[in-house]
C-alpha cells in the first residue's frame, strides 16, 4: 500500500515536470481578455434587456 502511494507520487512528479507551464505574461493576458469579454457581454446583455423591457412596457401601456 505504501509502495503504491510512493509510486503514484513519483509518477505525479514526473508528469508535472513534463507540463509546459505558461509564462506569467501569458496568464495575465489571458486573464485580462476574460475580464474584458465578460464585461462586454454583461453590458450587451444589460442593454438588450433594458431595450426589450422598455419596448414591452410601451406596448403594454399602449394596449391598455
Task: Please render the helix and strand layout as text.
Elements: H1 2-17, H2 24-63
Mean pLDDT over all positions: 93
Number of strands: 0
Task: Enumerate how many helices there are, as a single number.
Answer: 2
Shape: elongated
Query: What is the radius of gyration?
Result: 26 Å
Helix content: over 70%
Give the CA-CA distance, first to last residue: 77 Å
Structural class, by secondary structure, is mainly alpha
Write the H/E string, N to C.
HH
Work out the strand percent.
Answer: under 5%
- Which parts are unreliable, with pLDDT below 50 for 5 consecutive residues or more? none
Q: For the report, how would you describe the main beta sheet?
A: none
Describe the protein:
- The chain contains 2 helices and no strands.
- With 64 residues, it is mostly helical.
- It has a domain at 21-64.
- The longest helix is centred in the last third of the chain and has 40 residues, at 24-63.
- The radius of gyration is 26 Å and the shape is elongated.
- The mean pLDDT is 93.
Question: Which descriptors would you attach to this protein?
Answer:
single chain, 64 residues, mainly alpha, 2 helices, elongated
Short overview:
The chain has 64 residues and is mainly alpha-helical. The protein has a domain at 21-64.
Amino acid at each position: 500500500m505504501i509502495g503504491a502511494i510512493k509510486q503514484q507520487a513519483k509518477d505525479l512528479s514526473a508528469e508535472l515536470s513534463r507540463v509546459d507551464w505558461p509564462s506569467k505574461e501569458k496568464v495575465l493576458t489571458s486573464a485580462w481578455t476574460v475580464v474584458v469579454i465578460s464585461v462586454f457581454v454583461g453590458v450587451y446583455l444589460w442593454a438588450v434587456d433594458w431595450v426589450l423591457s422598455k419596448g414591452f412596457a410601451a406596448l403594454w401601456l399602449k394596449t391598455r
